[in-house]
User: Fold these one by one.
Assistant:
Number 1:
Amino acid sequence: MALRLAPLFRRAAPYAQVFRQLCSSPPPPVSLTEECVSRLKEISTTGEHLRITVDGGGCSGWQYKFSLDTAINEDDRIVEQDGVKVMVDTMSLDVLKGSKIDFQRELIRSAFVVVDNPQAEQGCSCGVSFSLKL
């Protein structure tokens, strides 16, 4: 009996793989560290969420901008984690995909930062601007 079922299992294997891919949820486009979530909970007032944009400029060509915002735009992608929301517009998301958002406290400043951006090749020493991998 086992010999007769073996061809059926071989034919079903590709479908099982597709089914697993369809059922698994995709990873979030960006992830948030515990420090980022904690700081957002401290500073967010009613309805405010962190907005991240990528703009041209800075000493390396591109720069990250962080702000608190209440408006959700049509082209925003929202990442929610532990009750906080981060909004990223679709154009900026292409540059940020796979990154981590962190909050770092240092002697001279405390700020939200993007770390481990797979699309960034190099950055300046301040950590705000970067160049893209080509």
Number 2:
Amino acid sequence: GGGGGGAKKTIGTQFKDELNSLMGTLSATHPHYIRCIKPNSEKKPSLFDNKLVTDQLRFSGMLDTIRIRQAGFPVRFDYPGFCRRFHALSTSMRRSLPSSSDAVADAKAVPGALLKAHGGPGELWRLGLTKAFLKEKLEGVLGDANDACRRKAVHVIWRYYRTFKQRQWYKRTQLAAVNLQRTMRMYACKQVYDRQHRAATKLGNVLRGCAIRNYYEYQVASSIRLQLCVRKFSSRRRANKLHNAVLLIQATWRMCRQKRSYNKRRHFAILLQSAARGRIQRQKIMPELALRMKALAEDESRMPVEEQQRRQKLREEEAAKAAALAASIAAEEEKKKMDEEAVKKAEEDAEKKVREEERDRERQEKSAAEKNEAEAILLEQSLPLCL
């Protein structure tokens, strides 16, 4: 057999290990036990059976536990916790007590004084080494007194806060009144200053107006002379520009017309050459074709009747195709002729339109030149008057 492994755990050993693990978990925590009460026997929600619940509390000992807790001191505080819970009372009481060198006695002095002041001789409270024991009634009395002390402190704080806000409002009002008085005095002084300033400004404007008016009249005379020269130069330059544009348009139109005429003559020359070459080729081919047709006729005379009929039929079909082709060629030539006539008519219309535009442009240039000459004459006549 193989080598022996570790010993198997028995049921007792496994239960012991689980129990030790559970006890270790419980020791490391602080468990709280909750007692559950069954509200009804029907297992329905929102149904509470008073008798069943009372019997469960009585038989489980909860009522006796509550009675014992009420007879004893259920409320327990350590001394620092007591001072934190009733902080307002503890603070006021600590101020009234004399200080001591013993820290334990000093920690017990404040709770003891508070309990004597609010709980009587000692029926409702007890003091231990580290804790104070109270009944619930005394805790309620101390809580009400602590809340009353806090409310009193809140009222004092609110009173000081309102005093502070009223003082701030008074200071703002006083500052606003001072600013208003200063503004009114400034406004009165400013009105006096404005009247004096307007008088001085008006006098200066009159003097400067006289000087500027003289200078302006001199500038107007100079500007009129300059405008006359500039208008003459701009009119001459515009007329030259229009003349150059007209020459360019005329040259372009003549070039297009010559180009269309050249293309037309070239097309007609190509057609004439094609017709002449076709005629020469037909003259060369006709004798050969006549010999070939004669040979075919001799061959057909020797052929059977059926073969002759078939060849006659083929010739008729070829003749029909040739007639259709000739008709289509004639239609294309007619269409081409019509297109050429339409193009020719469009060219004539364009040429007529260009001539009309040239006449309109010449009239506009002439009227603009006459207008410029009239303006120049008026300026020359008005210049001595301005000077």
Number 3:
Amino acid sequence: GDRGGNSFKLQRKDGISELHALWDSVVTEYANDWEEPLSSSSWEAVGAASTSIRNINPRGRLFLTSKNPTDWANESFEISKDFVYKNIEEHKWPSASYISTGKKIAEQRLAYGGYRLADLLVELWGQEE
């Protein structure tokens, strides 16, 4: 394999030089990591990113049917086969179409993860009333 995209090299841009880093950056949407520990301005940026992702991907529009982490992993595996490794070449920068579609997919996956984590925490600790 390619070590989860780490060995799939891309033309360097904005500090991104391999496929894993491209997807970690939410397909260039957040190419620069926030400083750690988070400053107040970084917290604001994270909050704004979260709000934007939730507004674009509201819970009611997503299909959150399974509570099984194996199913979640299989969803991501299918996306990697159907999109992540298609229409992209090593040592080249992805097309504008790939970047645009990839951002939408990555943000949706983040929304799924956030909603699933919230559901798990409510299941474990109950919902505050």
Number 4:
Amino acid sequence: LAWCQTFAESSIIALAKKTSKTLKSLDLSECKQITDQSITALSLHSFELESLNVTNCVKITDASILMILDTCLKMKNLNLGGCIKITDHGLSKMTGKIMRLEVLRLSRCYKVTDTTVMRIGKACVEMHTLLLSGCREIKGNAVRFLVA
């Protein structure tokens, strides 16, 4: 479904309900109309979801991601690249919920700082990929912590 610029929220809700027991991976990247309401509906029905890509879904906030992590307990791969409303504050609330993630992409999440990256590094023992390109607020401290 990537790049579906006119994809309606009602369609996401219908998809989530219809595929609740089978949907494991969903790519909604560049779907600019996707909102927190869409992601909340998705999370309430997609318990088998392991991978979600919401790259450049610019309307998504911390609330959506917290809901996904609360309800999609099999989530291993989460791509939030370019989700400009994702904040350091929201990510800090997520650190206890992301321990099972193996891949987390935060590229161009401009509000992410060293503090949250270090929390993620401590919490996510299963993580093998953390992408932070374009995160302007990340300085050397987080990088040094991650490689130490």
